[in-house]
Amino acid sequence: MDMPLHPSWPDIALRLALTIFASAIVGINREAGGHSAGFRTTVLVSLAAALSMIQADILLGVSGKTSDSFATMDVMRLPLGILTGMGFIGGGAILKRGNLVSGVTTAATLWAMTMIGLCFGGGQLILGGVGTALVVFALIGFKWIDLRISRQRRASVVIAGVSDASSISDVYTVLTAAGYRANFLRQTKDAGDRNLTTFEVRWSQSEISGPPHHLLNLLKQSYDVEAFDVIAEGIH
After folding, report:
1. Which of 26, 73, 117, 180 is the most exposed place for a label (fewest CB within 10 A)?
2. Beta-carbon neighbour count of residue 70 at 10 Å?
3. Per-residue pLDDT tens over the stretch 157-185
């Protein structure tokens, strides 16, 4: 759909309305998921991008210029600056706690919604609509796939009474036979002078499979498990 370089107020209203509608759809999805950048943040980011492109259209001089020269004009630096600023906002949404990096999907969503806002603001309504549909599909449809992808999981297991090489080797044998991989980490004593041996256990499991009850029950059948901690890691 061709839009005028100097948009009228109805054109501007249409661009802003579509921007709000598209960002609201994605924003509601993020808000429902409890993410740091939710409904209002997503709408504001997209509106800022759309307004920057509308402003660029209004400031864009057309007299004495050929149709293929507009993209090289300095006024186009405005939306590019918006994208650069979006990088700082996205960076603020990313948090690192130990091996777990969270907020990357939120930052990527804000980046994508900035681009969609630029599309609507620049008058590329069909491109903005297609982009919105793809973003929604990536957030909803691909999440269904992501939850079912088998990935490596880790847990720290503390077992009481396992001290000598023979008993440690027995733990390895039990876990290996069940498809797990174990590494010895350390050995300490508690207040009652009992030996506490810590293992790191690794296995592959999809996120939708839930907690590793099978592993915990397997160890409890033969050993005195003092602590069992699943180690969160990865990018979300």
Report:
1. 73
2. 16
3. 999 988 788 888 899 999 999 999 999 99
Contacts of 62 (CB under 8 A, 6+ apart): 5, 6, 70
Angle, CA 113 vertex, CA 108 and CA 118 arms, to 5°? 130
Q: What domains does the chain contain, in order, with CATH numbers? A: 9-146 (no CATH), 150-235 (3.30.70.260)
The confidence band for 22, taking pLDDT boundaries of 50, 70 and 90, is very high
The answer, yes or no, to whether residue 215 has pLDDT greater than 80, is yes
Are the C-beta atoms of 207 and 234 separated by less than 8 Å? no
CB 45 within 8 A of CB 107: no
Indicate the burial class of 25 (C-beta count within 10 angstroms; 0-12, 13-18, 19 or more): middle
Which residue type sits at 210? G
